[in-house]
Amino acid sequence: PRVPRYTNRLINEKSPYLLQHAHNPVDWYPWGQEAFDKAKKENKLIFLSVGYSTCHWCHVMEEESFKNKEIGEIMNKNFVCIKVDREERPDVDKVYMTFVQATSGGGGWPMSVWLTPDLKPFVGGTYFPPEDGVHRVGFRTVLLRIAEQWKENKDALLKKSQKILEALLLSSEICVRGQESPPPSKEVMATCFQQLSNSYDEDYGGFSKSPKFPTPVNLNFLFTYWALHRTTPEGAQALRMALHTLKMMAHGGIHDHIGQGFHRYSTDQHWHVPHFEKMLYDQGQLAATYSRAFQISGDEFFADVAQDILLYVSRDLSDQAGGFYSAEDADSYPTTASGEKREGAFCVWEAEEIRALLPDPVEGSTEATTLGDVFIHHYGVKETGNVSPMQDPHQELKGKNVLIVRCSAELTAARFGLEPGRLGALLREGRRRLSTARAQRPRPHLDTKMLAAWNGLMISGFAQAGAALAEPEYVSRAVQAAAFLRRHLFDPASGRLLRSCYRGKDNTVEQSPVPIQGFLEDYVFVIQALFDLYEASLEQDWLEWALQLQHMQDKLFWDPKGFAYFSSEAGDPSLLLRLKDDQDGAEPTANSVTVTNLLRAACYSGRTEWVEKARQILAAFSERLQKIPITLPEMARATAVFHHTLKQVVICGDPQGEDTKEMLRCVHSVFSPNKVLMLADGDSAGFLYRQLPFLASLERKDGKATAYLCSNFACSLPVTSLQELRGMLCP
To answer: What's the rounded Cα separation, in Å, for the pair 592 and 641?
Structure first.
């Protein structure tokens, strides 16, 4: 390899995204005191660039501008340049994204923001082309104009930045005004359902025309809505919307039919042509959602998709020490000889490639058919490629095919005169051969950073799938990942979570010299994961750790004045705002998930102050929940959990006894959004018995495993039959 011409300070960082920019001619600094001091000392503006390693337009802007020597010189002469990985520092990203969205009406990555030496933003945007075009000002021009303004009108710029900051502080405040109570759950649920119905695509599923995102928060809301309105037409409609969306996504090109897992989102209405990066947070949430779909419908199709996701994560996003990597890139080299990367190159196919790989004649079909013919028909492959030019502005996919299931197995079988069972075996063989061929292609870049929050979401995916699908090896994988978190992303001395760790040389796990402390979302998603893991494994250690982390979360992030939790800790002078996120997006917002966490924590500990905190969060977001709950479907769902009070399902029995195991399997097979499960194993010195004295009064009836349904620590009559238990769970 050539010795790079340039090397900047990012070479000392651990983040794969920062390391990608370590050899730019730009004199990049990481976010930190050294850069801030330089800006103050030299009285220079700061140029802040925020992105992440699998972001397509981040790569484009680097190629066009940050690798350009002349543009690099302009940047170095006039600005202190700082690079931030938004996945490492969501707090920094959120502050400046709030500014960019407020001032430009849009946002996204790469985010480009200019700050005064005291870190106040005054102008910002996203991607800039390098030179002026017909419709857009080029990056070079913007840099020169801003440098000129700083020379000529410094005081005006400083005044403007102060005004902007004051406006942001006012507009971003979320708090309880007066003695507000939580909004009425029934109305919030009805409004959210109505808003989702209005944006629902009847034909292809999903909640917009295009682009289409796999929004698990919407689907989970619909499942809960169904569970509370099973006998009504609206309940049936909610379930139909959720299951149809999940089916269409699984058939679409957003689902990787050869390599498993899901891509980030679809650029079209049909879930066909995706942006090809694969993110850990999508896999974790979708594995849980497809498992719930199976629980509710009993349709093996959904179980197969959940298993497909978990196969991908186990194989391609797993570190040997037990953690999960963050993402796989969209762009890769088409062949080992290629000079430039293309989006989707690893995943797309030419028709003739497929024919060459699948030439075998299919016996018993109606005409002289090859395996290639059947495969091409079933997956919508066209000789000239199946991607519309509208979906391919850079012509990277010309002549290529993104596989999509266009018709049912029955129709494909009938078309070639085959038995449906036989067709399944043929398609499996086709996928296996394409997978082997694809393994010869250069792989996309893998972001081997491991984040506490996203590992939490993935642990929940494995734990919930393990419970719902009765697959103990998934629960074991979740246990392995939770042990990894405790070993590498938790500081037992301070009791605090860390945000990130990294795959180092020789596949060891490395930490930054100054570790990044966990943010609110790290605590919330890890606590949720530990509750899910307890319910799947019934190992009380995870419960104990979850409650310790909940206390720490309260201490670090709770807002005693305005209620709800801040996204970041107090006391970082480089953060201008302490914000509270107010939108469930690709990931649910932390305050939404924490409502259910707090209610679960109260059930396992008997601490009613956690119920009170949940009430106060719902009150703080009351206005938004009543007007536009579609922006907070996970919190809307939590209003129902709060209103209906969580039911404690207590199984008294010997953990090794077959009767106990049968009862637990029964509980796991039923979707019930407002239950928490606990096992009373008779060990009065154990953690649960110490937390919940009422458990000591519950007995096994006639020596058999016995179930009780308890609410507010008062319990139903004991039941010992599975039929009665099922009836109790689905009233």
So the answer is: 12
Output phi, psi for 361, to 5 deg. -65, 145
CATH 2.120.10.10 for the 9-172 domain, yes or no = no
Q: What is the pLDDT of residues 482-493, one digit of tens each?
A: 999 999 999 999
Q: Where residue 179 falls among pLDDT bands split at 50, 70, 90?
A: low
645 is written with which tokens? 């009070």
Neighbours of 94 (CB within 10 A): 20
Sign for the CA dihedral angle at 525, 527, 528, 533 comes to positive
Residue at token pair 């970082």: 572
Higher pLDDT, 3 or 388: 388
1: confidence class by pLDDT, cuts 50, 70, 90: low
The residue to which tokens 């104009």 are assigned? 145
Return the amino acid letter for 443.
R
pTM (2 decimals)? Answer: 0.97
Max CA separation in the chain (angstroms):
88
* Per-residue tokens: 461: 């995916």
Q: Are 326 and 87 in contact (CB under 8 A)?
A: yes
Query: Which band of pLDDT confidence, cut at 50, 70 and 90, is reported for residue 178?
Result: low
Total H helices, total E strands in the chain: 27, 21
Q: Could you tell me the strand order of the sheet in which 449-451 lies?
A: 449-451, 500-503, 509-510
Q: How many CB atoms within 10 Å of residue 437?
A: 15
